[in-house]
Specification:
This protein is of the alpha+beta class. Helix content is 20%, strand content 30%.
């Protein structure tokens, strides 16, 4: 495993003057998954990490700058995630590079990210002419946040808060805007809106919110936090189907939005930007 503490996080690092795949810093998913007892050869979920890079630019064939929002989709089956500051540095290396068209540019990015992540990466560019059509939309579902609760548990994450209630099997989507965890390298806070969809015995809402708030002082990468939530809800509540989707606020012009789900919840959810993003 590549040590996260050797990454560019928390250090002054100059951006490369041009495209440089060596700027990318892969981090193996295996360690955080081993802590959850997961076998990488038989993951109990499917999903992807949806990245949005809001500060991306290059030069066209005649030297005129172009700008776009780069959307990257990294499959959860990839052996590595890519550290976010290293991705920002890598993308900044395109600012003075000429490309004939967007297809050539997408192919270059997809190639380098696939080499770093160890899996095929989907790359899409939302160009300037499409900016006006971009929407702000919050995750759908019933809010957990209006409950009047006494909460005093802010970490480490406490799955003991999770429980189900007797009653008929249901399907519902629950949302919180209160999620916070912390970067495991810098200790800086990471904020997110988070949605849990499930089918099964009713999950007790107060305990679910207390459990999610207990990440407030937890240090973990976004992707690892979502996988821990998925596994804790699976173990404690035994839903027939489950989806966990987190929309983290941006840092350094990038946001990361991990989604993990059982096959019953179908295709990857839409990449709709929340108000805080």
């Amino acid at each position: 495993m590549t040590d996260p503490h050797a990454s560019p996080l928390g250090r002054r690092v100059d951006a490369p003057p041009q495209r440089d795949p060596a700027a990318l810093f892969p981090i193996a998913r295996a360690q955080s998954r081993a802590e959850l007892g997961l076998d990488e050869r038989a993951l109990p979920f499917r999903g992807a990490d949806i990245w949005n890079a809001y500060e991306f630019s290059w030069l066209d064939a005649r030297g005129k700058p172009c700008v776009a929002i780069a959307e990257l989709r990294v499959p959860c089956e990839s052996p590595n995630l890519i550290e976010s500051k290293s991705l920002k540095l890598y993308l900044n290396g395109y600012a003075q590079m000429h490309f004939e068209d967007a297809a050539e540019l997408r192919a270059a990015i997809a190639h380098d990210l696939a080499e770093a992540a160890g899996a095929r990466i989907e790359v899409n560019l939302v160009e300037a002419r499409e900016f006006a059509s971009q929407q702000i939309s919050e995750l759908p579902g019933a809010s957990l946040d209006e409950q009047a609760l006494d909460i005093g548990d802010y970490g480490p994450p406490q799955p003991d808060h999770l429980s189900t209630m007797h009653g008929r099997q249901i399907e519902e989507a629950l949302v919180t805007q209160l999620f916070r965890s912390n970067c495991p390298v810098t200790g800086q806070p990471d904020w997110a809106s988070l949605q849990i969809r499930y089918a099964g015995a009713p999950i007790e809402h107060a305990g679910l919110l207390r459990y999610l708030v207990s990440y407030r002082n937890h240090c973990g990468f976004h992707e690892a936090c979502v996988e821990r939530i998925f596994m804790d809800v699976t173990t404690r509540c035994a839903p027939r189907a489950l989806s966990v989707y987190a929309r983290f606020t941006r840092r350094g012009g990038l946001d990361i939005n991990p989604w993990r789900a059982t096959p019953a919840f179908g295709a990857l959810p839409p990449n709709l930007r929340g108000a805080r993003q």
